[in-house]
Specification:
This protein is of the alpha+beta class. It contains 18 helices and 19 strands. A hairpin with a 6-residue loop joins strand 4 and strand 5.
């Protein structure tokens, strides 16, 4: 039916290289089960409701145009062994022989370009005896069926699903290794979709060689140095291209930058090694270790100077390990080991740059750090809620108490207990009563009350966190010394440690220099506090000889804490509970607080 002028017309799809409105190269044509053939003058899809149920869209008598798949921009030509020696593209056939599987893929890809479809490398099979690949399968890029998942919702709005690409196309070629050569054993040439017109064939991923040219790669590198976003880089490059030779997608830009990152790691690893070797020559007790991949590629590095090693021996009661601070051009996670010194300042016990945040990488780092610190494990360690990190700490530091950042857990609390909060206004009070219980016995009882009242099940997020309560609930940490550190202070102090010295635009060698400068400044601040504590006399608030004695031996910050405690102790009530020989037990609390608390 002809649409009226007031009705919105469908998407107009045209091919200028056809005399008529071209075939619709669109996935939903098959997903909807319609035999779409062309588009009318109004842009509406014309449906063929009759004809054969199955149509072979590739005719054997088609004369294939001359196509040269050589990629001159790659610095050399692509081999074309196994096929015809002339410039025309031939059709694959059974028992066709190739010297290498890459030649077979390029031959089939040339045929796909001339025909009008794209390719994917689908699967491989390996020999059970030698474990070597002996079979490879290349398929049409519309092979397979889309797996439908539950629709995601953002801010109450249902996210629009992407258009269907995979149409269960059966076109494929299978090659097997026989006597050192690759032989075509299966060739299926029937497609379940309309083929792409010549003008659009280069847009298939397997044919889009434009993004692989050295000129495009160089341009991507130049634009990336200006901190331009990936999508804007792709748009800028495509604006200078006619589109016939191909287009660059944001995914291709991101892929190139990832490969560049790996290459840069290899190049900058030499500079890192030279930097650390120089530090070692200046400080005989400076230790560092580098982790290399199986091919010799740089992965991770750990280092600690003599001052950090000595400080750890004194302040090893509790350390903080944080990998959230990523500030270098290669985006490697920066992992400092930190603690508190006698001025309650953050002090460094070693640093690392990690390839990733896997259990294997953490295991390598913790073992290197433990060796560096004379085999002395910390009494307690505070980290974020990371399963790989938790498992590694339990193995490498079996006698160390492990605590999670409580703020990391509470940050996600509200989103997981929203239904409980809506059902009653008392949830926050009941939760706080459990979380801030003074003893483990009270905590267990309060938890049972919480479970019964709000019907908390084992599958609930809060129950799963309760199972790990000894890692974050305060009642289980009353007898563990943590130097008074709260988890939020740990993270903030580390940011303050390095902010102003490092940023995301510097390379690895510059990053190490910046870390050194930050460390020098922090140790200068520590020296200033040492001077003030030693040469400046503390002001007394009472006539107590205890206060006077503490003023002599405590540092400034520690004395201020002691002085506040001494003052508050004069305003307490106490009840005598029991006496056992020389030991007497009292219950003490602030005068303004209720005794039951």
């Amino acid at each position: 039916m002809e649409p009226s002028s007031s009705q919105p017309c469908g998407l107009r799809i045209e091919d200028n290289d056809h005399a008529h409105c071209g075939f619709v190269d669109d996935a939903f044509s098959q997903a909807s089960g319609l035999g779409i053939q062309e588009v009318d003058a109004h842009g509406l899809i014309v449906v063929d409701d009759g004809g054969d149920d199955e149509v072979n869209l590739i005719e054997d008598n088609i004369e294939w145009p001359d196509t040269d798949m050589n990629d001159e921009d790659e610095g050399g030509s692509t081999p074309n062994k196994g096929g015809s020696e002339n410039s025309s593209v031939n059709k694959p056939f059974l028992n066709q022989v190739f010297d290498d599987w890459l030649y077979a893929f390029e031959f089939y890809n040339s045929y796909a370009l001339a025909t009008g479809f794209g390719l994917r490398k689908s699967s491989t099979n390996s020999s059970k005896k030698t474990n070597n690949v002996n079979s490879r399968k290349f398929v049409c890029d519309r092979e397979g069926v889309k797996k439908y998942k539950a629709k995601k919702v953002d801010d109450g709005k249902e996210r629009r699903e992407r258009r269907v690409v995979r149409l269960n196309c059966k076109a494929k070629i299978i090659i097997k290794l026989r006597d050192g050569n690759w032989v075509v054993t299966t060739f299926d040439d029937i497609h379940s979709h309309i083929l792409t017109s010549p003008f659009k064939r280069q847009m298939h991923r397997s044919h889009n060689r434009f993004s692989m040219s050295e000129s495009v790669k160089t341009l991507i590198d130049c634009l990336d140095e200006t901190q331009m976003a990936v999508a804007r880089i792709a748009k800028a490059i495509n604006s200078t291209n006619d589109g016939i030779s191909g287009v660059v997608t944001p995914d291709q830009v991101a892929s190139h930058l990832r490969k560049k990152r790996v290459n840069n790691i290899g190049q900058e690893a030499v500079l890192v090694a030279n930097h650390l070797q120089k530090k070692r020559s200046e400080d005989p007790n400076f230790l560092f270790s580098m982790e290399l991949d199986t091919d010799g590629t740089f992965r991770s590095v750990f280092w600690a100077d003599a001052r950090a090693r000595d400080a750890y021996i004194t302040f090893s009661d509790v350390i903080v390990f944080d990998v959230t601070y990523k500030t270098n051009r290669l985006s490697l996670p920066f992992a400092p080991f930190t603690g508190l010194n006698h001025h309650r300042q953050s002090t460094l016990f070693g640093c690392a740059l990690l390839a990733d945040e896997t259990e294997e990488t953490f295991s390598w780092l913790f073992e290197q750090w433990l060796t560096c610190m004379h085999g002395k494990a910390p009494d307690a360690i505070i980290t974020d809620l990371d399963p790989a990190m938790k498992k590694t700490i339990g193995r490498v530091f079996p006698h160390t108490r492990h605590r999670f950042y409580s703020w990391h857990i509470h940050r996600h609390l509200l989103e997981h207990v929203e239904e409980m909060r809506d059902s009653t206004s008392d949830f926050c009070l009941d939760y706080n009563r459990w979380f801030f219980s003074k003893t483990m016995e009270d905590s267990e009882q309060s938890w049972e009350d919480l479970v019964c009242k709000y019907e908390i099940e084992e599958s609930d997020w809060l129950y799963r966190m309760w199972v790990q309560r000894e890692h974050w609930v305060p009642a289980y940490w009353q007898n563990i010394f943590t130097a008074g550190m709260s988890s939020s202070q740990c993270s903030e102090s580390m940011n303050a440690f390095f902010d102003g010295y490092v940023n995301s635009k510097i390379g690895l060698d510059e990053f190490l220099d910046a870390c050194d400068r930050a460390l020098v400044q922090r140790r200068k601040t520590e020296a200033e506090e040492d001077f003030k504590s030693k040469y400046l006399k503390a002001s007394m608030k009472t006539n107590s000889p205890l206060e006077e004695e503490a003023g002599i031996f405590y540092t400034r910050n520690m004395f201020n804490i002691f002085q506040d405690e001494l003052r508050d102790s004069t305003g307490c009530w106490y009840d005598h509970l029991s006496k056992d020989g020389a030991v007497e037990e009292y219950l003490v609390g602030p005068r303004n607080d209720v005794k039951s608390r």
